[in-house]
Structure formats: structure tokens, C-alpha cells
Amino acid sequence: MEPEHLNKKDKEQIDLLTKRFFDLFTNTDDKIPNVKALKSFFIKEGIIINNSFENPLIYNLDNFITPREEILTNGTLTDFREHEISEKTEIFRNIAQRFCHYKKSGKLNEKPFTSEGMKTIQFIKTANQWKISSVTWSDIE
Q1: Which pLDDT tens digit goes with each residue over 60-96?
Q2: Please, what's the b/e burial string for 38-76 (b: 16 or more CB within 10 A of its CB; e: otherwise)?
Q3: Within a domain: residue 12?
Q4: Which of 39, 61, 82, 104 is least surrounded by Cβ atoms within 10 Å, i.e. has the fewest?
């Protein structure tokens, strides 16, 4: 059975949730990121995986949020912005997957950097609301 878009409203909700997810980490123009808000985007059992290295780094929400909140607010990572370049979203009933190419930039320890990579984001729909169940990414070096 081929995945299908249930309706335009589902795709719009997933687009908005994804944009909010990427924007959450932005600290440009004196913006203070509210990384704890990730908990409202995810199901309680959400999982986040950085598979950019030989061994994947696997996080639950709490052990992902704490270090990100610290580096985004203590001056370690400044002028940070991450955004989608392209995406493909497939929706089937109450599950969805988004595969996206993204770019990020900022200053890490005052040194400017840019990077890009691919993310896969899985969603589930509960009580007529889309939530993220997992995010996995791999940066292009």
C-alpha cells in the first residue's frame, strides 16, 4: 500500500510543527531559546538520535534538552540558526515521516561555522494532534 496524504490540513500541521522544531533552537537577534518546549512537540517517550559519528548518540527528551539549553544560553553556541532546505513528507492515516535536508550556522566558542545534513522525523497523530515520536539526523561533514 502506498503512503498517501490524508488531507491538506495534516500536511500543514506537520509543516508547522517541523518549522517550530527547527526554530526552537534559534538564538540569533538576542532570542532566548525555550528548549524545554520540545516536550510539548514530542510524545512523552520521544527519542532523538545523532547518527553523525561512528557510534550513534541516543537521547531521551530530558538528556537531550539539558545540554542544548546550556550551550544555547551560556555563550558557547551563539547566532545559531537551523532550517530546512528541502523535505519529503509521507502521511498514512495517523503516522507520518518527513525526510529533510537542513542547514545550520552559528558561532561555536566564537568560531563561525556552517553545516548541513539530513534528518528523518517520525510523527504520530493522537487526539487530532500531530506529535513527534522520533528525530534522527546525520550531518554532512
Answers
A1: 999 999 999 999 999 999 999 999 999 999 999 999 9
A2: beebbbeebbbbbbeeeeeeebebeebbeebbebbeeee
A3: yes
A4: 39
